Amino acid sequence: MLRQWLEQAHGRTEPMWEVWQDDKGRCHDPLRPSIEPGGFASVEELRQAREVTYGALRRAVQTSRIFVFTPGLTESWANAGAGQEYASCPGTAVGRYDPECHVFVNHRVDAIHADLEALLALLKAENPEIKVLLTVSSVPLTDTALGQHVLTATSYSKSVLRAVARMAAQDHDWVGYFPSYEIINSAPFRGMFFEPNMRSVNPNGVDFVMRRFFLDQEAAFRPQKALEAAPQDSTSQAVKEAAAKVGARRRGGAVVCEEGMLNTFG
């Protein structure tokens, strides 16, 4: 969807001017059906609003120092003929579902990686000084079109997006990754950053993530192989002492498992 918006805004591809009309004759934009809750008065008004957004996107790309993007899921709906994707399934918020025209797609790693590489190239071409900061949405899916349990569908979506984000950060020194997804969803926090519905992130979670980010903003753009290239003497004194304790126990005949070593280093 981001690649689609950027390419259309910069004239790389022709926009899809499909319009959804409700029972009152109001017009809705398939690329953002909820942007005007009551719909637009006419097709022309819809197109003018879209053109304003295209212009805002161009200005954002040209003037940004850091472009932040948070992908959320891999499931999408598309127009079979035009090949362009919708913001939501036709017929849910607005519009009508047509099985002859509308197709469901659950994107794979290769497809998402290709889209991300294409949009990164576009961003760099339009603004050579730009940096991109990727995160992955911490919010799980609330439903799925796959016919399987939503927890399984969520695991697939987040895993694919996280893998692609890692690939981009590893391949480009101007692309960074910040682990807001891991902070919110990691087991040690026991779900404490979610609201009672176990889906929405609560204010404490948002605050915790943002404080981590502002404490060390540059960490997101450190080379992914920095740890592998670190010199041996960079190990902290505390870690060296803990490792020495583990070695002494091993020499004394004690069996130390990986969990025990983690406890010692902790």
Overall residue-averaged pLDDT value: 87
What profile does the largest beta sheet have?
Answer: 3 strands, parallel
Gyration radius from CA atoms, angstroms: 23 Å
Number of helical segments with 4 or more residues: 9
Number of strand elements: 7
Task: Write down the CATH topology of the largest domain.
Answer: Rossmann fold
Number of domains: 2
Shape: globular
Beta-strand fraction estimate: 5-15%
Q: At CATH's second level, what is the architecture of the largest domain?
A: 3-Layer(aba) Sandwich
- SSE order, as H and E? HEEHEEEHEHEHHHHH
Distance N to C terminus? 42 Å
Q: Biggest sheet, strands in spatial order?
A: 3-6-7
SS class: mainly alpha
What is the CATH level 1 assignment of the largest domain? Alpha Beta
Helix content percent band: 40-55%
Contiguous low-pLDDT stretches (5 residues minimum) are 227-235
